Amino acid sequence: MKITEAYTIVSSPGRNFVTLKIKTDSGLYGIGDATLNGREKAVVAYLDEHVLPALIGRDAHQIEDIWHYLYRGAYWRRGPVTMSAISAVDLALWDIKAKAANMPLYQLLGGKSRERVMTYAHCTGQDIETCLEEVQKHVDLGYKAVRVQAGVPGIKTIYGVAKTPGERYEPADAAIPAEHSWSTEKYLNHAPKLFKAVRERFGDELHVLHDVHHRLTPIEAARLGKAVEPYHLFWLEDCVPAENQESMKLIRQHTTTPLAIGEVFNSIHDYREMIENQWIDYIRTPLSHGGGITGLRRLADFAGLYHIRTGFHGPTDLSPVCLGAAVHFDTWVPNFGIQEHMAHDPLTDEVFPHDYRFENGHFIAGEAPGHGVDIDEDAAARYPYKPASLPVNRLEDGTLWHW
Ligand code: CS2
Ligand code: MG
């Protein structure tokens, strides 16, 4: 089955997405997600200029060989732009292979390990009370797990909190990055109060998650992890930037709060030491940044040896193509933990018809052959690309910090 055509589709139905379509001489086609938030055009250029011309004429079934052709063959390894491009090709090829087998993707991976996959919703508020109201709304919708983020007195704009209650949180909204300001002390003094309030209002059973978004040092993260132990979080996410993998060791030595990391990692090598030493509990790299099904399958199997489970990144800036493929992966992967769900804008759902569904706090994979997500190219053409960047963050004295 030869690849005859491959092209990128850039659209902005609510936010920017880069989608890859690969066609074959069998009439079957596959769809991949190549979105890298705030750096979309870099991946488009990488695919259009360097990857897609070399795919034409190749056998679409040779997924493993094509993966290495693009990874080893480029000479330049890893990195978010390269890996997003490889991921998109890989997702589209697995979509084609599953369609050719006339099976939903989870069947091809090895079948169902579970009937449904637990997902967590984002609950945010300018203050604790508003955040609790959002939790109540999501509990009423059936969610068994919620991520809570609240404003901190004295910090004007904070990660994860929508400007107006009920509004969708979308950080990449300005062509030139917006500038936020940060105080670690104010945050550390306030954050435990949020979890205490959630437990007092909702009891012990609800799974509660929180994202620190890389803002602490290891010893500060250790202090936070220890302080929140009584509220038994499902996880504390990205509490430090961990290019230095040993950072996680220090945190681990001080706290039993489970640790999730990796939404900005794109390679198994980014995790090796922290997995082998069991310094973490959940891996976060999404299929669209970590080398697709091929890359994440290797990573998940490796992590499974060390009791580490998956908790895929699932914000609005990964398209329904990534989420749909993730629901199939989650249905199969033996060491599944949880799947993030930040609901897409209705315009996004219009452009990307899909057959996964949400039911009582879980996602259920569809039975259509492939990963079950398509793109309506006419609808996509109605929403042209709009430049948008993620914000930057500064300490109160002006030092550039981690956003
Ligand atoms: C995040 C994202 O979902 C998460 O956990 O940290 O909201 C992240 O900020 C965006 O994906 C950045 O593009
Ligand atoms: Mg995160």
Automatic annotation (TrEMBL):
Q: Which domain of life is it from?
A: Bacteria
- Cross-referenced InterPro entries, in alphabetical order? D-mannonate_dehydratase-like (IPR034589), DgoD-like (IPR034593), Enolase-like_C_sf (IPR036849), Enolase-like_N (IPR029017), Enolase_C-like (IPR029065), Mandel_Rmase/mucon_lact_enz_CS (IPR018110), Mandelate_racemase_C (IPR013342), Mandelate_racemase_N_dom (IPR013341)
Q: Which residues form the Mandelate racemase/muconate lactonizing enzyme C-terminal domain?
A: 128-258
Looking up PANTHER family in the UniProt record yields: D-GALACTONATE DEHYDRATASE-RELATED, STARVATION-SENSING PROTEIN RSPA
- What is the name listed in the Swiss-Prot or TrEMBL entry for this protein? D-galactonate dehydratase family protein
Q: What is the lineage of its organism?
A: Bacteria, Pseudomonadati, Pseudomonadota, Gammaproteobacteria, Oceanospirillales
